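Re: the 374-residue chain
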Amino acid sequence: MTDHYSTVTRTGCLGNIMNSLVGALVGLGLFLGSFALLWYNEGRVNLAIIAQDSVPISATAAQPALEGKLVAATGTLASKETLGDTFLHPGDYLMLQRVVEMYAWEEDSRSTTTKNRDGSSTTRTPYSYDTEWTSDPEDSSSFRQESGHHNPPMSTEGARWTVGQTALGLYAVAPATLTLPDVQQLSLNGDIVRAEKGWHLEHNFLVDRPNALSSPQVGDLRISYYAVPNRIDVTLFGRVQGDRIEPYVAKGATLYRAFTANREQAIATMNTEYTIMLWVLRLVGFLMMWIGMYASCGPLNALLDLVPVVGTISNLLLALLLLPAALTLSITTIVISMLAHQPLLLIVVVALVFGGVIVWSRMRQPGSAALPAA
C-alpha cells in the first residue's frame, strides 16, 4: 500500500544566503570532526593482536600459574538458569531476545531544488507513504501528511534477557559483560509457546490477529525470538582471576568474548572485524571532510547562484576541485595518526628519513680535488 503527497516551497535570494551561512557552520563542524574521527580510528586497538598473546587452556583443569593472565579457554558455557517470558515457556538459553514488529506507515521524502533566474530557488519535496513490518515504527504525528497515515502505539515491546550466572568448566563467567556468540532465531512451535489469548502462531511468528502475515493491516503485531542456546562449546578470551574468568583490559581496550570456534578462527574473525571497520571509518572520515569543505563554501555558491548557469557550473567545478584536496588531507591525517599511535613505526620512519638525508647530503658534496702530478 503506497500513498504519495508533495509540497513546493520557494526561497528568496536572501533566504538562500542565510541558509548557506548555516550550512557553512555545519560544514565546518563536519570538516573538523573528520580529523577527530580519522585520528580516533587509527588509534583503535585491534583485539586480534591482543588475543594472539592469549594462553590456550582447557576450562576443565585449574591453572593457578596463569593468575592474571590472558587466556583462551575452551569448554562448555552453561547455566543452571532458564529464560522465558509471557509468550514463551522457560527454556535453555544463555540469552533470549524478543523482537516485536508492527505493520506501520513509513514516510520517505527526497527534495529537489531548482535555481531561478532571480537568485531564488524552488524546492519540490515528494512524500511517499508505504506500509511495512518494522520494530521501530515512526511517530506518525511528525508526518507531513498525518491524515490517513496514523500509526497506533505498540501494545507489546521488544525485550532482551541474559542469565545471571554461567560457568565455563571450573571457571565462573559474568554473562552480563561477556560478548556472547551470535544469536540464532528460534523455531517456534506449540511446545515452547504459551497459549496467550488473542495471539496465534503463524510461520514462526506470534501474531495478534489471524492471517496477519498474509493480509496485514496497520497496527498488526508479530513477534519472533532469537537466542544463544545454553551449554554450547566455546573459546572464551578473558583474564584468569582465581576461579573466575573476567574481562582483560590492555591499551584501553577490553577483551571478554566467547566464540563458537577455535582460538585461531576466533582471532581471524576479530582481525576481519577490525579491518572492515577500519576502512569503513576511513571512508566516512574522507566523506565528512569533502562534504564539510564543500558546505563551508556555501555562501560563495549562493552568491554565484545569482547567475543560474554560472552557479550550476561553479558548484560542480568546486566539488571536483575539493575532491583531491579532501583526499590528500585525509591520507595525510591517516598517515600522521598511524605514526602517532605506533611509536615503533614512528621511530623506524624517522630513522629512515634521517638516514636518507645524510646519504643525500654526502652525495651532494663535491668530490676531492685531484692532486697535481709531481
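The longest strand covers residues 93-109.
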